[in-house]
Amino acid sequence: MGARGAAAPPADIHDLDEQAFIEEVHSFDFWFQAVEGYLSGLTHGHKPDTVEAAFTELERDRLVTVLCNYCLGETAALEGASGLIAIAPNRLAKIFLSTQVADEGRHLEVFLHRLRDLGVAEAELEVERRASRSLQLFRRRLLELVAGKDWEAAIFAQNVILEALEFAVFHSHAQTADPITREVLLGVVKDERRHIGFGENELGRRLKAAPHIRSRIGQVKKELDHLVLDTLEETMRHLGIARDEPDRLGRTYLESVERLGFA
Amino acid sequence: MAAPLESPVEPDTREDGERQRFILDDTGFDEVPKKYRRFYRKWQGPGDTLAPNEVICPVCKVVIRSTRELRPGDRVYCMPCMSRLVVVRNEVGTLEARVTY
Asked: Which residues of B touch A38 (CB under 8 A)?
């Protein structure tokens, strides 16, 4: 951010000029100072002195399956975000996505580490074995959209659909998780806030400027919705979360697509 | 959640009437750089209430805070999720924020 980053902020942040706000929140410097606030002092996403819980074999096995799905989701997001940098339409989007790539790489690493903590020797092989088929299909389709250089559809799939799903699931899981998993998830949720916001705002601006893309995005939504909701239901089942919870979490995703005009 | 996190200090006379002013304290919200932290706080769930200078971001559910009492038409920014919002009065008469793209 250079000189402006060093300057005193206005008395009220909401008095900032709109362009100054956009430049500031998309900057690498903003990201760095933000993550420093909640990641410094952590080891693999949690406090080094947090004590491991005692799991039954069933609890451990269910958590391993859930973490395998998280790893696949984060792998998709890492591959998607890194591919999107090349087709991003402007500097701010490219720089923001570079910070998202760093976030996704960290998420994948902390979840793989958590699997190893739980005694999974070959964590990446276990992810391949256990990860949800719906999520695998979602990943494949996301990467096709990125490879096809379809910026709006890929941003919708990744930063609206996938990130909204992750945000909702991680937030909910953190409420009942063991102490270490909870700390890891809460750190990831803080990153996800930026990712969902970027996706919704970028796509909202695009739809406003070029309404004709709405029908194409609507088709992508129709194609991917059931994969997202299937993954959500499967994950909630493994977590043993109440039957009405998937509906509530699904609503979190549906609210964001509704704001974009896809009811 | 007006006290003790924040306290009104003096009215701000403007064309559209007097507004309460607030001194914002850092509430421990750590998802933005330090210089911006006092403008945001976590929603504490049922039992929490919004002060006249606060609205919830509909995108990421963080509480956005201003140094001024908020009124319909005001613009606010959610730095944690990078959203630009406008304050509106909803059908039940309370203030809420809507995203502007």
From this structure: 30-31
